[in-house]
């Protein structure tokens, strides 16, 4: 029996007046509504097991069974009546309690009964239909509040799930930080070491764990690269400072002589590569040359300025009145001589300047060519290192770049090959292509050596003949790929056989431009021709496609007929006759 919801303290007169306000029509509608809900709820109750039913029927007399049915029916009727009465009382209360309070109570009931946010009204009804708060709302209001509740609850659960996942990812990241990973760390080693850690297990899918690991490893590699660049820049600054401290180094110094003086300095040893040391030394010498050039420019500007000042003073002296002619003549001679000296000095200086520029240009070209040669040599050396690495580690032609890269990174030669990512991938693809080509050649060599293989042989037959040969297993682990290559092989062989037939027909002197008409007039002529051709193995190769072979012969005869009789040996070429 459904208990009525707790009623607020009201006087008897108020209850009677409320009861009087409910019409007969409304009461009937309420009864129909509660009856429908009862039927849905009863339908969801578990049925008796068939074996149990059978046992009960077997041990219970017929009269008892009929009494039980009558009793059950009475109990259902009593239950329906009680439910209807409860609904009527609830309708009375709905008229008194505000809608907001009733909705709040109904939502509290849904939360207490742990109604699933991703279920339906019909599936969750049996959880709430017997609660007193269920009757606080009408049927329409219940479903509306239910739909709104599950929608909000679903969004809350999704948000909670996202937050929980974010927390798990943060914990997983902390685990990776504690693991002190470096750029060459692999996920396999990490999983083996920390697989039992709860922060590792909290990320359910292994693929997601590896994806998060790879993302973190990219950050680690970038950080290591930046740190390496900063260390390299600091080492370079220290090396340059060491060179500047050497007072005997000028723009004409040679590296072979200079390095003997500084090779004991720790700043020299800090630079790992001897090529890098030499490059930085040349860069420092170039800086000295640029400084020297700037100093010369300043000196030349100073002299030009002084010369202009002297010229201005001379012009001022010319404008002043001269007191003595003898003195004036002597001054003019001195000025003329000084002007000639200045002009000569300017010419000499200009010539020296031009010569120095020419030497600088020649030296710059020479140094640039030498730098290009050095860079090319370094590049060729890196390519050789990487190709050697590929030859040692990559022997499977079906391996893809992404998987191969993980294996190659573990070898120290990966770092020696200072090539960009695109070039490494290109060299890898060329290596794979070469491997595939070699395996394909070996596979076709095996087919050629197998005498039983003919143009009409099926793959199933051929496979039995060659499956024990290592060249078959090495070609590919995929039988479909082997079959596909075999079909390509047969196709190429067929094309070659057809070309051989064409060559045979050309070699057969009995065939002329008249042969087609002869064959058409007398069928036996064709048979005689075939008998002659059968003596050659090239003709017999196409025994499995006789119709197609006959078409090739007839096509050749038609072509000869179109050409007509061959010209006599003494006839000139048409082009020559036209001239």
What does this structure look like?
It is a single chain. With 579 residues, the chain is an all-alpha fold. Among the domains are: 12-46 and 59-163, Arc Repressor Mutant, subunit A, CATH 1.10.10; 337-428, FF domain (Arc Repressor Mutant, subunit A, Orthogonal Bundle); 496-567, Arc Repressor Mutant, subunit A, CATH 1.10.10.440. The chain has 25 helices and no strands. The chain has helices at 12-21, 24-43, 50-59, 62-94, 99-112, 121-128, 139-178, 187-194, 198-201, 206-245, 255-262, 266-269, 274-319, 325-393, 401-409, 413-416, 421-449, 459-466, 470-475, 479-507, 515-521, 523-533, 537-540, 546-563, 574-578. The longest helix is centred in the middle third of the chain and has 69 residues, at 325-393. 9% of the residues are buried.
């Amino acid at each position: 029996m459904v208990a009525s919801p707790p009623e607020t303290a009201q006087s008897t007169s108020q209850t009677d007046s409320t009861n009087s306000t409910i019409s007969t029509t409304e009461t009937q509608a309420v009864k129909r509504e509660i009856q429908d809900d009862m039927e849905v709820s009863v339908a969801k109750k578990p049925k008796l097991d068939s074996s149990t039913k059978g046992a009960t029927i077997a041990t219970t007399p017929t009269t008892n069974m009929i009494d039980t049915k009558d009793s059950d029916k009475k109990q259902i009727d009593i239950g329906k009546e009680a439910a209807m009465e409860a609904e009527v009382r609830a309708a009375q209360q709905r008229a008194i309690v505000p809608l907001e309070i009733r909705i709040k109570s109904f939502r509290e009931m849904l939360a207490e009964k742990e109604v699933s946010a991703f279920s339906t009204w019909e599936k969750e009804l049996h959880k709430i239909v017997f609660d007193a708060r269920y009757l606080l709302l009408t049927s329409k209001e219940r479903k509306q509040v239910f739909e709104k509740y599950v929608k909000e609850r679903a969004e809350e659960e999704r948000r909670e799930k996202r937050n929980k996942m974010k927390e798990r990812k943060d914990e997983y990241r902390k685990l990776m930080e504690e693991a002190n990973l470096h750029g060459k760390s692999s996920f396999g080693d990490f999983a083996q070491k920390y697989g039992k850690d709860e922060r590792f297990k909290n990320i359910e899918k292994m693929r997601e764990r590896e994806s998060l690991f790879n993302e973190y490893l990219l950050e680690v590699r970038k950080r290591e690269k930046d740190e390496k660049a900063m260390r390299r820049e600091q080492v370079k600054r220290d090396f340059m400072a060491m060179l500047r401290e050497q007072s005997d180094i000028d723009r004409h110094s040679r590296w072979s002589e200079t390095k003997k003086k500084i090779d004991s300095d720790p700043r020299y040893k800090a630079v790992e590569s001897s090529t890098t040391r030499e490059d930085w030394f040349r860069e420092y010498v170039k800086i000295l040359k640029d400084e020297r050039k700037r100093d010369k420019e300043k000196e030349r500007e100073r002299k030009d300025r002084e010369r202009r000042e002297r010229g201005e003073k001379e012009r001022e002296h010319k404008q002043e009145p001269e007191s003595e002619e003898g003195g004036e003549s002597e001054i003019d001679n001195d000025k003329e001589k000084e002007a000639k000296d200045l002009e000569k000095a300017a010419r000499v200086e200009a010539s020296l300047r031009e010569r120095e520029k020419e030497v600088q240009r020649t030296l710059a070209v020479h140094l640039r060519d030498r730098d290009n040669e050095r860079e090319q040599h370094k590049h060729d050396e890196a390519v050789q290192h990487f190709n050697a690495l590929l030859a040692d580690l990559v022997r499977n032609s079906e391996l893809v770049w992404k998987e191969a890269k993980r294996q190659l990174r573990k070898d120290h030669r990966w770092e020696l090959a200072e090539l960009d990512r695109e070039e490494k991938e290109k060299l890898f693809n060329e290596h794979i292509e070469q491997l595939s080509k070699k395996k394909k050649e070996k596979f076709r060599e095996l087919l050629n050596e197998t005498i039983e293989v003919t143009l009409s042989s099926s793959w199933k037959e051929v496979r039995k003949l060659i499956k024990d040969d290592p060249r078959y297993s090495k070609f590919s682990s995929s039988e479909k790929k082997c079959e596909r290559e075999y079909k390509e092989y047969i196709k190429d062989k067929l094309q070659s056989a057809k070309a051989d037939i064409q060559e045979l027909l050309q070699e057969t002197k009995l065939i002329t431009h008249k042969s087609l008409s002869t064959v058409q007039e007398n069928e036996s002529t064709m048979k005689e021709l075939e008998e002659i051709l059968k003596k050659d193995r090239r003709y017999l190769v196409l025994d499995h496609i006789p119709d197609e072979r006959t078409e090739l012969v007839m096509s050749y005869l038609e072509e000869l007929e179109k050409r007509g009789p061959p010209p006599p040996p003494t006839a000139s070429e048409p082009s020559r006759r036209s001239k």
